[in-house]
Amino acid sequence: MRAMVAGVLAASFVLGLHYVLVRFRVVKISYTHRAEKYAAHVRLLGGLGVLGLGVFFACHWSLTFLPAQAPASLWAVLIFAPLFFIYMTFYFAMDRSVQERMMIELDSAPEQELDFEGILRVYDPDTKFRNEIDGMLDEGFLRVEGESYVMTPKGQLYARLARWAKRVLHLGEGG
Amino acid sequence: MIGIVCGVVGFMATVAIHLASLRFGRSRRHFRVLAITALTCLILAAGGASWWPTAEPLATPKAVAVAAVLFIYGAVLFAYFIFIYIVDSSSATRILVEIEQSSGKKRTYDELTTRYRLEDKFRDILKDLQYLKAVEQQDGVFRNTAKGRRHARLVGGFRRYFGIGGHL
Fold first, then answer.
1. CA B143 to CA B82: how far, in whole Å?
2. B126, A107: Cβ pair inside 8 Å?
């Protein structure tokens, strides 16, 4: 139980500090393209993660009043959840990543090379756009009203969360 | 300790059932299948851990508990980064935000494609792939590097075997 509470405190410390540093531009993340932006966030989170380890061990040694053992079912849930999350990330990257699709299209091209127009021919942006919208209609994020697309309450909730995160983390328009 | 074992076994069962459903199943609702499988396995794992008759003698050693929590800690940081990545790079998120920002909270297909051009996203992604040294460009022509080729064949093989991908 002690290790779990220390872990929660350390993770909260890191996520909170990352939010403050980025939100108030104490650390300014400058980039020329997307991969650089993500690399900067990974570096920042990695550095804060090492700091968080100090918080973890400090909490672990000082929270002696907590019982050492935690219920077995809680352990099962806490181990299952991150393993499943990592698997889901891997699966979705395999299934729907645009980067992967582009590399596969380049590899499958007759000369194993394509110019930008060629990429647009084999990976049609219009079809992708329609498939994205169909997926959101299917999953209940959007509904059709006349000729327009309108958000369902589920879509609205997610859009507000995303808009808030984009604003506070200065992520730009993205997409 | 039995809790950790049950969690790992439950996860492995989820992966096995999910991969079998991709390979042999007919459902196109892959995410729904995955979610139902995971929830069932999670309930079974947590239930199994709490009802295991020898739970007491298998109390989690301190070092194992610390290592397990450090793994969970790393996973939380990873999840936070993935959240940032999805919010920033997902096309679906961008489309929803475009509708949310509109005055009437609705947009037609043409309005959406005017405000959000996927051609620009594709250009950005090609730049990313060059930054990651997976793709190289010469005289306006793009080709995979050895790293990109290995990656494309691995993912392509996985996609073909399990019948996923290609729809987005």
1. 28
2. no
Question: Whole-model pTM?
Answer: 0.81
Beta carbons of A87 and B156 less than 8 Å apart: no
Contacts of A125 in chain B (CB under 8 A): 117-119, 121-122
SS3 content of chain A, % helix, strand, coil (to 5): 70, 5, 25
Establish whether this prediction's ipTM goes over 0.85: no
How crowded is the C-beta side of A142, counted as CA atoms within 13 Å?
Answer: 29
Is the predicted pLDDT of residue A112 greater than 80, yes or no?
yes
B5-32 b/e (C-beta count within 10 Å ≥ 16 → b): bbbbbbbebbbebbeebbeeeeeeebee
Please answer yes or no on whether B132 and A162 come within 8 Å at the CB atom.
no
Closest CA to B3 of A84, A79, A32, A42: A79
Q: Is B95 a residue whose pLDDT tops 90?
A: yes
* Domain regions of chain A by residue span: 1-70
Backbone angles phi, psi at B73, to 5 degrees: -60, -45
